[in-house]
Batch of 2 targets.
Target 1
Amino acid sequence: MENEKHHIVPYRVYILVLIGLLALTFLSIAITEIELGSLSVAGALVFASVKSYFVLKYFMHLKYDKPYIVTMVLFVFAIFVVTIIVTFLDYLFR
Amino acid sequence: MNSTVVANEANYLKYRGKFKGLPGWIFSTDHKRIGLLYLYSMAAMFSVGVLLGLAMKLELLAPGKTIMDAQAYNATFTVHGVIMIFMVVVPGLPAVFGNFLLPIMIGAKDVAFPKLNLLSWWFYVAGVFLVLSALLFGSGTPDTGWTFYAPYSFKTGTNLLPAIFGAFILGFSSILTGLNFLVTIHRMRCPGMKWTKLPLFVWTLYGTAWIQLLATPVVGITLVLVALERMFGVGVFDPALGGDPILYQHLFWIYSHPAVYIMILPAMGAISEIIPTFAQKHIFGYKAIIASTMAIAFVGYLVWGHHMFTAGMSGTAQYYFSLLTFIVAIPSAIKVFNWISTMYKGSINIQTPFYWAASFIFVFMVGGLSGLVLGALATNIHLHDTAFVVAHFHYIVFGGTGFAFFAAVHYWFPKIFGRMYDKAWANIGWLVFFIGFLTLYSPMFYLGMMGMPRRYYDYLEQFHGGNILSTFGSWILATGFIIIIVNLVRSARSGPKAEMNPWKGKTLEWTVPSPPPVENFDEIPVIGADDGPYNYK
Amino acid sequence: MEQEKHVVHDHYDAEASKIGMWLFIFTELLLFGVLFVIYAVYRYLNHDAFHLAAEELDTFIGAVNTIILLISSMTIAMATTALQKKNKMLTIVLAGITLVLGFVFLVNKYFEWGAKFDHGIFPGSVHLTEALSQGEILFFGLYFIMTGLHALHIIIGLVLIAVVMWKVHKGKVHAERAALLENSGLYWHLVDIIWIFLFPLFYLIH
């Protein structure tokens, strides 16, 4: 079985992604100064999700991988989200 | 084209490689040998579980203490559950028949990670020993039930930690098997073996593997948390420290409900192989069965709360879980319809596997319908924690996975051992077993409706008659089991040699010698456009 | 009767190994995911107590650890590029930097936890069970479990990377046989992602 030629990701891409991640980290710390009340959790999760997106896409190579692997990742993420939502059907309505 | 003579020298049973004798088996990375290792170890654990079950039935023969007191009874049903669930039906068909047949059915020489496969079995053995050690050493056999509910699970003085860690290790075994099968199916199908040409057993192994992979970690971490609660008092499930015991139940059932689909999907897959073969007819609705398999695997994640209707969840959650429970029954019903439709106008060959498959359909349906009774909120309140529930899950799990396992054994036995069993005794064994099964479990539906609680060693006098009948049934069942086992063991050793394709099946395992050579195929098969697993015309 | 048809086949399938590692990563995601579910439930039920308890945590150390892991993720990713460009020395250097950064992370954790223990904050402690509210007890219980389990995975990752460095040095992992390095990198990124979520949920509640 032949292996596909591996796409070589330039160093520069990784450096740029890191800079983006660091910027997002600083931003996420900075917004804690702002009183967001009940949105603070959402805000934190948004930043974390965006950072994870970039780690998955570039560091973990999903941008260059075959689509079925991306499908699997999305599927697992969906299962997890559904599990939280269904669990909260209990706690939110007690 | 009788290659059995040549094959005997190179077949996987007789092959002698780097290790000989017993080490040649327990250090083997051959998927076929690993499948048999699972078969033997699971058969041993099943026998222990059966003895524990018989002991429970003996205790329940009469009200009050018969042979054991309450504490011993609690320990007995706990160990019975842990063994049967974690050591028998969860590994179940995938560990034995998945391991043995998956590579052959897709035209491969082995699974993707043979060494990991052996490690899976070693984890299984380690888990078994850890759990058994909980019985032998320390402060008393666990008495929490196999469900380890908080807060009792971190308060009980019995020896819970080895049992928890044993279950944790058994979880690793399951995860690794699932991982291996997923990669194998994705990467090692032979040329022409498209997804739409896969045998249905392979499809069910695929769906099951996803559940093994994604659900097992949930119970793993939950059990670890119970252990941490016992050791350090972190408070996660302890109401005194702010924890919620119902959260434990959520997390436990988030695994344990999908786990029942780990148990039943491959069972349904085996039935989907057996019925077309013994009807000599293409399976009815191949794609519908695939779709319903995937639907069961997915929707099965969404119904766990139906084990918790009386625990204290919100009304919203209760309505939701009840609704989804009814929905998840639909794909299973589709399968039953398709199996029956396959038989219709088929050329039925009534043999032992067919008896098991037909009786599977019957008991599975009864069990499934009783599940709907439990899935409805109003009736559940009356029936929760009664003998009705015990009847339901034994019909579904023992009747479902158990019967399918016996069907699979009698179907693939000639391929695995290269010999045929005594068919008359196999059929007698089936009949006795079936009668015993019905006698043992049917009274429990009635007893539960009349109000007999489960997990009690004692009961009110009005339940006595039903219990006598049930216990009597357990002895008939045990007799049937002995007949079956003796027949199979004797035939494996000295039965008549089996041909390559005694049942005229169409899947790839019937194209290799019985028993198969070490690497399954001399040449990797190529599947043509007109080939298919059920092309009986 | 012996049948020595045992030919050693080189069954190297990079894609199979990659899927294998991704599947393993999925199990880890569910494992930590459950802990996040527990966190979510208890934070919802004990909103104010969680805020109060979080003030005990040092945002600066948490931020430093975040930055450390992000940089280490970059270096291990770069190591794959270096390997594919057949630059063996650079590969080992980059993996080595990852190793060092991971180790610094653990050292920080050690001091962090040490400070907590000195204040009498640890699971089952007298201070915890008697002086703090239930929500705070839960917060710290989850803090120790989740960061502890995460640290355990850092250690596993470091062992993996060390093994890979050795194999690169020995020439067993190279451009045509890069799976072990790539997949160890995947594992390391997973550990990074978990921390990306841990950091704001424990350290950035204000």
Note: The mean pLDDT of chain B is 95.
Target 2
Amino acid sequence: MTNGIDVERVNGIDVLTLRGEHDLSTATDVSRRIDLALESAPGLAIDLSETTFMDSAVLRVLITAQERANERGAGFAIAVADSSGHGVHRLLTLTGLDAKLSTQPSRADAIAAAAAS
Amino acid sequence: METVSERVEIEMAAAASGVPLVRHALRGLLTGLGVPDDVIADITLAVTEACTNAVVHAYPNGGGTINVTASHLGGELEVAVRDHGGGMAPRVDTPGLGVGLPVIAAIARSVVIGSPEDGGTEVRMQFALRTAVG
């Protein structure tokens, strides 16, 4: 598989890694995995450091995830790293959501931030 | 001045699974043309948004096809995404973010949305290939 969704528990929280390309074809799966994580974990970190492509369908899922995490009082952070695809950065900048989403510059930083809350 | 041109035509079922296939085909063409990675990222994002719009909005009762045509001439790429469905009606209950068209407009040199005589909607985007956009 060139793309996938990995879920692991690290430091007591769930870490969801979006590997490869994600768009409308994977958005429902991503959303489902996020829902499962938020039901059972005190925090969620979404790792986009291995995401090579992301569009607004997936971005909407991430925004909803942040809102739901905040409602539940769960820790939440999204890792957007230098290794994330150019298009990932581009989409976040174009939509202004790089300022509104709880992003961290690395996977480790996102895990620490989500675990701390 | 380059006179050689290439054209890639793809027909996909109006389903989410077709969106990455169009992107891979387009990326293959652009990689073959030696387009820089950041320009490829921009173009594939814009075209993905246009294809997603067609999948989500054109055929509310399912079915239908979407035609994507990518034409390269000189330093420009024109990509047309055409559906034969109900057109692009504004929706306050859109399942998406509602940012697809603004994203396309920010990336493409120009975007024209038309209603062809034989029905449906066509989104025609022009991209400059030589330098990064924006």
Note: Chain A has a mean pLDDT of 96.
